[in-house]
Amino acid sequence: MKKTVVTIARSYGSGGKEIGKELAKSLGVKYYGREILEMLRGDETYAVDDESIQDTSLEESNKLFEEQSKLIREIAEKESCVIVGRCADYVLKDMDGVVRVYLHAPIRNCMKRVSRLYELNPDDAKELIRSMNKTRGNYYEHNTGHRWSELTNYDVCLNTAGMSAEQCIEIIKKYIELKNE
Length: 181
Description:
- By secondary structure, this protein is of the alpha/beta class.
- Helices cover about 50% and strands about 15% of the residues.
C-alpha cells in the first residue's frame, strides 16, 4: 500500500473511534486521536482533555489548534496512519494520499450505542449526543471556517447503522484500494 493517511470525522455515537482503531490495526498503521493531545502535554499549556478544550480561552484554543495542526502535518508527512477527529481532514486538505472519511448514524442508533457504552438512560444519551455533536461542530467551524457535517469535505461518508465495525472497515479499505489503483 502506498502511503495513505485516513482521517475520520464522526458524529458522536456512530462508532468512529472504534472503527478508526480497528482500521489502523487492519492496515498495520498507527492510530492517532486523543493521543495527539497527549503528545502535546509535555508543555503545561496543553494539559487538557477533549472535553475541557471548550473551556479554554480563545487564545489558548487557537494556540492548541495550531500546535495540533503542526503535529498532524508532521505525522502525515512521515507515515501512513489513521487520525480520528482534530479537524485532520481540513489540516491535511492540500496533502496527497489523504482519504477523508465521515461516519454518522441516525440518532436512535447512536443513542443505543451511547446508552450501552456509558450505561445511560435514553434521554441522557440523547442529550450527551446532541451536546457532543454541537461541541464538535462549533470546534470545527471555529478552526476551519467550514461546517463539520458538510459532506463535500469528505471522500467517503458512511452511515454505520446496522453495520459491524468490520463491514465499515472493509468499505473504507476498498475505497483506499480503488483510489490507489
